[in-house]
Amino acid sequence: VGALRNWVDLQKEYDCFFLLADVQALTTHFEDVSQIKTSVEDVVLDFLAAGLDPDQSTFFVQSQVPALTELSMYFGMFTRVVELQQNPTIKEELKHQKDLFYGFLGYPVSQAADILLFSPVAMSPGDELLVPVGEDQAPHIEATRKTARRFNEIYGETFILPEILISDVPRLPGLDMDKMSKSRGNAIYLGDGPDVVTEKVNSAFTDPKKARVDDPGDPFGCAVYQYYRVFAPEIADEVVIDCQKGKIGCAADKKRLAGVMNDVLEPIRTRRAEFAAQPDYVWDVLREGNRRAREVGDELMEVVREAMHIDYPDLADSVPRHGSTQ
Ligand code: SF4
């Protein structure tokens, strides 16, 4: 919710590119690809429903922009394995995985390509390359800056160093107060109907010490309060007082929150259903986005190849065809 709100505002001010990371999904799901296409479609529907506008922003699919693979390959040439092994996300994931795969180890390299492919080709004063992510992503952006710096040192000034653009929307935990994730079933989706939202809110974690309505509670450890902060910040302070003074019970508070959330989500839900009812719309948006991302990427790759001295005249006609007598 924080990311989408932020992006909807940013698209008015910046040239925004939103990447659907289907290749990155393979780093952990290469054996089960059944959900990839539907996930891409779902994410685009969420983007559109939340107000991202394909006339203002570019949505594209990672696998459909070959320049990303090429750039990632070049970056891999000067990235040390030991640095990848020290990457905090890789280290953390390795605790849960028994095998370390080449693609997974290298994903910070491909992430650097995902960002730097959109570095402006002809840099003008004031140009910026911003990555609007949460603070927890800072180490990734730092790794990408390192890659850009190293490339510039070896091959000459080519990439602008990306900066992190942190959103001020509070981070929303899952309904169980753990990190939000699909596999834990602790998230509310933009496509969820009103009854599902109410049911999910009813399952939210609250202060276990507040058993009766008039027991004083601790709102700060309660998921319901965290959701008020994001969805109805204007009444969040009142929730704190009512909870601490035992003026409201958890059941009533959840009922009120479900109402607030359904009011916020209803227009988004309606828009999402309208887009979903046009079966080709998402793919048309992606077709145009892929085309634009390829165009921008191809332009940058010409500069990259030239810097690396692997730019050649068009050799297509000089290579003898198989079986040719010439
Ligand atoms: S009253 Fe509200 S804020 Fe307090 S613990 Fe219950 S649900 Fe959470």
Topology:
Layout: H1 2-13, E1 16-20, H2 22-29, H3 36-50, E2 57-61, H4 66-77, H5 81-85, H6 88-94, H7 102-105, H8 107-116, E3 130-131, H9 138-155, E4 163-164, H10 194-202, H11 223-231, H12 233-244, H13 250-276, H14 281-307
Parallel strand pairs: 1-2, 3-4
Helix pairs in contact: 3-13, 4-8, 4-14, 8-9, 10-13, 11-12, 11-13
Residues 206-207, 210, 217, 219, 222, 224-225, 239, 243, 248, 250, 253-254 line the site of iron/sulfur cluster (SF4).
Question: How much helix is in the residues?
Answer: 40-55%
Tally the beta strands.
4
- The shape is elongated
Quote the beta fraction. under 5%
Can you list the ligands bound to this structure?
iron/sulfur cluster
Terminal CA distance: 62 Å
Order of helices and strands: HEHHEHHHHHEHEHHHHH
Tally of contiguous helical segments? 14
Question: If you compute it from the alpha carbons, what radius of gyration comes out, rounded to the nearest whole angstrom?
Answer: 24 Å
- Mean pLDDT comes to 91
Strand order of the largest sheet: 1-2
Q: Stretches where pLDDT falls below 50 for ≥5 residues?
A: none
Mind summarizing the main beta sheet? 2 strands, parallel
Structural class: mainly alpha
